[in-house]
Design a protein that fits this description.
With 457 residues, the chain is α/β, with parallel strands linked by helices. 31% of the residues lie in helices and 20% in strands.
Length: 457
């Protein structure tokens, strides 16, 4: 049992969970999956295809004939982490195939690690499979190698990420995601709903909807309707909400049509939770970021959302120390946060990223100033979180159980996404609980990020 630290990175997916014992002679592949939940979904798809071809999945280096490293390239620190993971895999196993966002820069990888077997870019599933076939030829046994009904999952059985689109049409100066993953490509709505239905039939109790820009879903295919399902985020949310699982929306830009989602939340079809990457609040900083600069109007939107759905939880991420950020601009961000009273907040200190247009902006902020601003921002965010959680003591709320050990049942409320938000711990009379259970608890205690409670009838 552990509590969340205040600097938990908001771009990290849950740690992959895998490992079925291989049969004698079965070719075996290991997987290291880095970065965001979108990359984790890519890893699941790759492993599902490999499993269908007769490969076993190894939970460690030693048991693998080769290792796939799915990399992250969002920040320079993430690139360094990816190169380190590749080096570790080479040292521990020796046969490494690299894919993912950093794979869009193959020379960068091979320059550091020339012994990798192959490098492919993000969501290049066929190329990854081709590289695995060359390194470790398949040897399927049709009598025993059967694909599980819901494929290979790297998350606990009771929740699953549901990717609805790939790529992004925004041109934020600090971000290179469109360069790595391309422009927006929405999946047909009927395919998304079919996948979600299969997940729920397989035991998933919570669907975490992800993309690079969830609000823009369907724009590229003109909100096409096919087989009774329309490719628009409001329609999709309504369709998913009819399946009987919790539905949580991530990476939602605050476009005007987002207000159409709020009634679905107040009706209980979708969890009252919005993950919106505001990034900053001062209009000049937002302009330098090449993002919409209407922070004051956003406050009005937030107030209107809360009028319709008072229990709405708002999560966001911000960047401090962006090039040119003055103390006055940073203070505007703190004042805005005071007024917005966001429930869940993550924060990055600005980093140059190779290829980002923000690198060329003047007046970069000194490292010690960025650290000071990050400390001050997180202190305010922590105080807001502590007050909001303290107000929940005495309330009865629904939670989903994630894990049960000797000390407690670790759960999440509807206001908490896996890994990036807080937990609710039940440390008495929890032995009958199991992962995936949804129970009602009375909140008895609160800290800055977590809650404690007891099960009630």
């Amino acid at each position: 049992m552990s509590t969340n630290p205040p600097d938990l990175r908001p771009d990290i997916a849950p740690k992959p969970r895998m490992g079925e014992p291989a049969r004698a002679g079965q070719p075996t592949i290991g997987m290291v999956s880095l970065g965001c939940p979108k990359a984790l979904v890519d890893s699941e798809r790759i492993l599902t295809r490999l499993r269908a071809e007769g490969y076993a999945i190894s939970p460690d280096y030693a048991g693998a004939d080769a290792v796939i490293v799915n990399t992250c390239g969002f920040l320079d620190s993430a690139k360094a982490e990816s190169l380190s993971a590749i080096g570790e895999a080479l040292t521990e196993n020796g046969r490494v195939i690299v894919t993912g966002c950093l794979g869009a820069e193959p020379e960068y990888i091979t320059g550091a690690h020339p012994k990798v077997l192959a490098v492919t870019g993000p969501h290049q599933y066929e190329q990854v499979l081709d590289a695995v076939h060359v390194a470790v030829p398949p040897s399927p046994d049709p009598f025993v190698d059967l694909l599980p009904a819901r494929g290979v999952s790297l998350t606990p059985r009771h929740f699953s990420y549901l990717k609805i689109s790939e790529g992004c049409n925004h041109k934020c100066k600090f971000c290179i995601i469109p360069d790595m993953r391309g422009r927006l490509q929405s999946r047909p709505a009927h395919a998304v709903v079919r996948e979600a239905a299969k997940l729920v039939e397989g035991g998933v109790r919570e669907l975490l909807v992800i993309s690079q820009d969830t609000s823009a879903y369907g724009v590229d295919i003109r909100h096409a309707e096919e087989r009774g399902h329309r490719a628009h985020i409001t329609d999709l949310a309504r369709d998913l909400g009819s399946l009987g699982a919790w539905v949580r929306l991530h990476y939602v830009y605050p476009y005007p049509h987002v207000r159409q989602l709020i009634p679905l939340m107040s009706e209980g079809l979708v969890l009252p939770y919005l993950d919106i990457p505001f990034q900053h609040a001062h209009p000049e900083v937002l302009r330098r970021m090449a993002r919409p600069a209407a922070a004051a109007k956003t406050l009005d939107e937030i107030a209107a959302w809360r009028d319709v759905c008072p229990d709405l939880t708002l999560r966001s991420t911000f960047i401090v120390g962006y090039p040119g950020e003055t103390e006055a601009e940073f203070q505007t961000l703190l004042d805005w946060l005071d007024e917005a009273q966001l429930d869940r907040v993550g924060c990055f200190q600005y980093e140059n990223v190779d290829g980002a247009r923000s690198n060329a902006l003047p007046d970069h902020v000194a490292a010690e100033v960025k650290q000071d601003r990050w400390d001050r921002f997180m202190a305010k965010a922590q105080a807001i979180s502590a007050a909001k959680l303290a107000a929940k003591t005495g309330r009865r709320i629904e939670v989903i159980v994630d894990e049960v050990d000797d000390e407690a049942a670790t759960c999440r409320t509807q206001a908490d996404a896996p890994e990036i938000d807080g937990n609710l711990f039940i440390d008495e009379d929890f032995s009958s609980l199991k992962p995936g259970d949804i129970v009602t608890v009375e909140v008895e205690e609160a800290s800055e990020y977590d809650l404690w409670g007891r099960v009630v009838d």
